Amino acid sequence: MMASGTPTPLGATRMRDGVNFAVYSSVAERVELCLFDDAGHETARLDLPAQTDGTWHGLLPGCATGQAYGYRVHGPYRPGDGLRCNPHKLLIDPYARALSGNIRWCAALFDFAAGRAPADERPSPLDSAAYMPKSLVGGDTPAAAPGPRTPWAKSVIYELNVRGFTMRHPALPAAERGRFRGLANGAIIDYLKALGITAVELLPVQAFIDEQFLTDRGLRNFWGYNTLNFFTPAGRLAREDARAEFAEMVNTLHDAGIEVILDVVYNHTAEGGAAGPTLSFRGLDNAAYYRLVPGDRGEYINDTGCGNTTDADSPQFAQLVIDSLRYWAGELGVDGFRFDLAPVLGRSADGFNPRHTLLQRIRNDERLQGCKLIAEPWDVGPGGYQLGHFGAGWAEWNDRYRDTLRGWWRGDRDTAADLARRMHGSAELFEPSGRAPCASINFITSHDGYTLHDLVMYRQRHNEANGEQNTDGHLHNYSCNFGVEGPSDDAAVNAARRRRRLNLLASLVLSQGTPMLLAGDEFGNSQAGNNNAYAQDNATGWLDWRGLENDPPFHGEIARLVQLRRRHPLLTLGHYPHANHEVRPGWPDIVWLTPSGSPMDDDDWEHYRAFAMLLAAAPAVADGPLTALAILLNGSDVAIDFSLQRYDPGVPWQNEFCSAELQLLDAGTRTWRLPAQSIAALSGGNP
Fold this sequence. Notes:
There is one protein chain. By secondary structure, the protein is of the alpha+beta class. Among the domains are: 11-136, Immunoglobulins (Immunoglobulin-like); 582-684, Sandwich (Immunoglobulin-like), CATH 2.60.40. A hairpin with a 2-residue loop joins strand 15 and strand 16. Helix 9 (399-410) crosses helix 10. The mean pLDDT is 96.
């Protein structure tokens, strides 16, 4: 017999006398709590005895940690009106802290009768319990170790897929490969520290499922952008207890001084469109979680391209997002979040609003203070491209940086001025809202698209293995194959490709803003031209660590670049320099120079394929040397001589990095010869 219990907190909460169950459904007429044994057999159905403002609740005496459960909702089934209650469907608790079992695709998972459209008012009588994961009453988690709280300006982010990063690492035992414990292995920790990484950004690790169409093709969802539950770490990334193993991984990374940022997908769920399965939210209270088409509430607004779109205006959904973020940050120790298709969280019926209540709540929540917040500032909905519009407190993925850097090094015309803007930190995008350069998350590659190795090897995507006739993935990649599609035996082609990769990563690390590296780019990982490997949970998607053996110097160059960035103050400025401040008479805090050493004028940007960015800070003591940094870029096909005679920091310039062989021609005139297609960094003073 259940007692009334309490409506808060939502989920299954252990109390002194048992477990309190609370679940929201404003449309339910009755809610059953279903209990299951370890074999997955249903052992009891109990009506939740109380309802408070749409939340159904009850206290079950004697219930303990690990108890498997689910819900059945009795209520109206009128799909055309957006009502999808069907008690034959076992539903996952949206606030479950753990899950057991996996989805087994069959007709019973769908709430409508076989052969009929979802809008027909005939619910399916097939029981789904045998084919559904079960919610579990959660236990204790290890106490979260404090994160290092690395300042934004000092951050170097490394995007990785937990499974893909660890599956083929030669130092990991089989039991750790593909799992959270693999990422916490000492060999991995040492590697990340040696590379200079301050934060790992993990592709989605909240519980997700494989779409039915992928299962039918014999494929799996590798990236994880198909969330089933927003509180539960993915079981496929753990050996036994996903929550405990995730928490242990976070603590281990924190002990090493590395932050953990999660890629979170609050914009849609795994239930898909109107013809999708009923797994949780849809069967509980469809309209409380999803945006439905006005005038046709049987259909879902699809601003995500994934079938459904969550409703940022819904108080119930907004609270779920806040509660989920608090849980991952507070109880599991996560340091930040990257929000997939973030405009969805700021969109109402009348469009995107950067001051939307949900975005403001995320930014201002007391329990999320100190968390890094990163927006992917685009989706496929109306007005979906919102780069630069998320405002104070937010950083944003900067795809203009990606495309400009790719295009300039490829030799595209009329890109020089834009290159300067991007390396300056994209001030026109972020400074108007009072943000610093670190708000720009600069990247050349990410999980979505070519790896860096493939960017210089393929002009056309090669996604045949995805089973979509090579029609999926980006068409506009700003890539270049140097005259040979795919691998080449030509030494000159391979040398040019290697130089281009080094130029791109050096530009990234030497730019103002926060650099994000894609795991494996530092040693030439390839996906054989697949630029949409979302379903390649195999050797295509898993990192091939043999690249470290094939070209060790390349990896070493990247590590040295990252270390240069971390120690040189002019690479991590907390403000935008605009040449309106002189650190010494005639020497502004930033200036762009032609190779001859004169400041660039408007016409120069149209003609030069080689120029320099010069940054400077005032001396620490009167009449002392300036702190200065000169970044020389040569995108032409011939060597270029650069003169820095006009700008003398008071000490000799030091060669900190060059992607080729930089030659000092004349110490007196401070003239350097930079080979074709290369980049160099020179420092002056005391960095």
